[in-house]
């Protein structure tokens, strides 16, 4: 388990809020997060991060997956981005953890 | 990233604080964006008779409802155009016995499916059948916390208890649940009890939508519009509840929709005319919003032309796109892209000119009409029972007119 300066625990498993759905929209060329009567239009990195939340991977595994997917990006930067995004998404109520 | 809630609409149905989709989806280089939202009004039939209904006054005149196959075709066409959020509405959509078939088809096509219902016609078997069909969300309307007020609003004595039972069943079935309460002068003072009831029912979100004054609500306007004091008290109550809920760690969002007649600037209605939102009425008429049918123009139907042609190329859908149609004071106003001149239906209802600046705007030369409407409402002493209820009998009178 690692803890970075964002205060995030690496063993936390985040998942989408019940009833919410992540979906790739070909017509918009991006991922969208769909929820009752609303939609969040996601940028590339937000879409990539949310797409790795499968209910199994913890934060460390999400970071590792994305580091492997984007080998050209500095590993510490990916970790920082993932942590910041997940905290923000949790604050906005898009994702929950147990 | 932009958050794209249901556009600030005439039913006051908008679930988040962000409404910047209008900007996100503005026509670029003259290109119109996709109709991201589809509202399928399956029927005008409804067991309730709410005096603030947004359906057209002459709904009894509407031609035959689209068949199951015609609706499936509409869903398929809309999805191919990029529609992704959709609502099944009405009237009461549960009246349609093919609702489960349409939900299943919509979900298969990739829509996020919302059922917007009074809960009348719902039972536990149907909740499960809709769940199996892939329905994503059920929004139930409540008329009041007090059974007597609820009965008077809806014109039905049995509806309220049924709604509460079904709200609990919807929650128990694992759906996210949004409750919608239309506010007006006869129930707004009970807001504290209304929010407490929604909390008790386990709502995930509550839309406290001051009644928007179109259709039947416009007919009953003077008997529905609350006073400024009522409105301010209701906003304070909402704020108190937000703090209380936050303190308890209870995640129930409260969305308070202010009535236009007390705003200083108009809403960016539907995120702009023909910008992101498309309604298909029970008989297949395609509208830029569910109130637009009363405007002095004729909207094409899906029985006449492909949906894509109607959205992108038809004269009615292009008439109020962009800003070329605007008159003063909108035409030279710095805020014209923020509020898109307000609402065309409101402009027409109040001034007789659908291209006028929405008189809600205090820069409008017609703003005195809104002030007069507020004064008229202050002098109206009718009870709920004395308002004109929305039903086929009353509607036929407008069909003849």
Descriptive notes:
The complex is a heterodimer of chains A (about 100) and B (about 400). Chain A is α+β, with helices and mostly antiparallel strands. Chain A has three helices and five strands; from the N terminus they run ββββαααβ. In chain A, strands 2-3-4 form a three-stranded antiparallel sheet, covered by helices on one side. Chain A has a two-stranded antiparallel ribbon with strand order 1-5. In chain A, strand 2 and strand 3 form a beta hairpin. The longest helix of chain A is centred in the last third of the chain and has 17 residues, at about 75-90. Chain A is globular, with a radius of gyration of 13 Å. The mean pLDDT of chain A is about 90. By secondary structure, chain B is α/β, with parallel strands linked by helices. Chain B is about 35% helix and about 10% strand. Chain B is built from 15 helices and ten strands. Chain B has a nine-stranded mixed sheet, covered by helices on one side. In chain B, a hairpin with a 5-residue loop joins strand 9 (about 275-280) and strand 10. Chain B is globular and about 50 Å long. Chain B starts with a strand and ends with a helix. Classes of the chains: A alpha+beta (about 100), B alpha/beta (about 400). The interface of A and B includes residues 27 and 36 of A. Strand 4 of chain A pairs antiparallel with strand 1 of chain B, so a sheet runs across the interface.
What are the key terms here?
heterodimer, A: 98 residues, alpha+beta, three-stranded antiparallel sheet, two-stranded antiparallel sheet, 37% helix, B: 401 residues, alpha/beta, 35% helix
Shape estimate of chain B: globular
Give the DSSP E fraction of chain B (strand runs of 2 or more residues).
5-15%
- Multimerization state: heterodimer
- Biggest interface: A-B, 22 and 33 residues
Largest sheet of chain A: 3 strands, antiparallel
In N-to-C order, the SSE pattern of chain A is EEEEHHHE
Low-confidence stretches of chain B: 7-29
- The overall pLDDT of chain A, averaged over residues, is 91
**End-to-end gap of chain A:** 17 Å
Q: Tell me, what's the shape of chain A? A: globular
Strand order of the largest sheet of chain B: 8-7-6-5-4-3-2-9-10
Rounded to the nearest angstrom, the radius of gyration of chain B is 20 Å
Protein structure class of chain A: alpha+beta
What is the beta-strand fraction of chain A?
Answer: 15-25%
Could you give the order of the helices and strands of chain B?
Answer: EHEHEHEHEHHEHEHHEEEHHHHHH
Fraction of residues in H or I helices of chain A: 25-40%
Helix percent band of chain B: 25-40%
Number of beta-strand segments of chain B = 10
- For the termini of chain B, the CA-CA separation is 49 Å
Cα-atom Rg of chain A, whole angstroms? 13 Å
| Poorly predicted tracts of residues of chain A | none
């Amino acid at each position: 388990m690692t803890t970075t300066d964002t205060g995030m625990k690496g063993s936390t498993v985040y998942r989408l809020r019940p009833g919410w759905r992540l979906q790739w929209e070909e017509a918009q060329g991006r991922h969208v997060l769909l929820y009752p009567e609303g939609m969040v239009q996601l940028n590339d990195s937000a879409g990539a991060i949310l797409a790795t939340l499968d209910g199994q991977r913890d934060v460390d595994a999400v970071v590792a997956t994305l580091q492997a997917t984007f080998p050209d990006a500095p590993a510490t930067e990916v970790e920082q981005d993932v942590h910041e995004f997940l905290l923000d998404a949790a604050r906005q109520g898009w994702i929950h953890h147990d | 990233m932009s958050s794209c809630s249901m556009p600030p609409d005439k039913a006051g149905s908008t679930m988040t604080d962000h409404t910047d989709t209008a900007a996100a989806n503005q026509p670029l280089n003259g290109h119109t964006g996709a109709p991201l939202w589809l509202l399928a009004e399956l029927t005008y039939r409804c067991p309730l008779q709410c005096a603030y209904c947004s359906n057209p006054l002459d709904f009894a005149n509407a031609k035959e409802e689209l068949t199951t196959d015609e609706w499936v075709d509409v869903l398929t066409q809309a999805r191919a155009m990029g529609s992704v959020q959709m609502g099944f509405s009405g009237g009461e959509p549960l009246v349609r016995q093919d609702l489960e078939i349409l939900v299943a088809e919509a979900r298969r096509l990739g829509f996020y499916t919302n059922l917007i219902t009074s809960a009348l016609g719902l039972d536990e078997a149907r909740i499960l059948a809709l769940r199996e069909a892939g329905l994503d969300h059920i929004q139930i309307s409540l008329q009041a916390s007090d059974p007597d007020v609820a009965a008077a609003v809806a014109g039905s004595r049995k509806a309220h208890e049924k709604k509460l039972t079904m709200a609990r069943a919807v929650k128990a079935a694992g759906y996210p649940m949004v409750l919608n309460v239309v506010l007006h002068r006869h129930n707004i003072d009970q807001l504290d009890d209304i929010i407490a009831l929604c909390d008790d029912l386990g709502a995930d979100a509550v839309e406290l939508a001051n009644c928007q004054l179109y259709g039947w609500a416009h007919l009953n306007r003077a008997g529905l519009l609350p006073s400024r004091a009522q409105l301010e008290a209701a906003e304070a109550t909402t704020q108190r509840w937000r703090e209380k809920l936050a303190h308890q760690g209870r995640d129930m969002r409260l969305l308070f929709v202010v009535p236009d007649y007390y705003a200083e600037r108009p809403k960016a209605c539907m995120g702009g005319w023909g910008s992101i939102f498309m309604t298909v009425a029970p008989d297949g008429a395609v509208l830029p919003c569910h109130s637009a049918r009363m405007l002095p123009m004729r909207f094409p139907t899906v029985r006449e032309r492909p949906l894509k042609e109607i959205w992108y190329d038809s004269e009615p859908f292009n008439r109020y796109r962009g800003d070329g149609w605007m008159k003063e004071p909108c035409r030279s106003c710095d805020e014209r892209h923020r509020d898109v001149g307000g609402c065309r239906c409101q402009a027409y209802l109040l001034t007789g000119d659908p291209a006028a600046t929405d008189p809600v705007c205090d820069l409008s030369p017609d703003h005195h009409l809104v002030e007069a409407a507020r004064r008229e409402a202050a002098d109206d002493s009718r009870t709920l029972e004395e308002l004109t209820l929305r039903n086929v009998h009353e509607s036929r009178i407008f069909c003849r007119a």
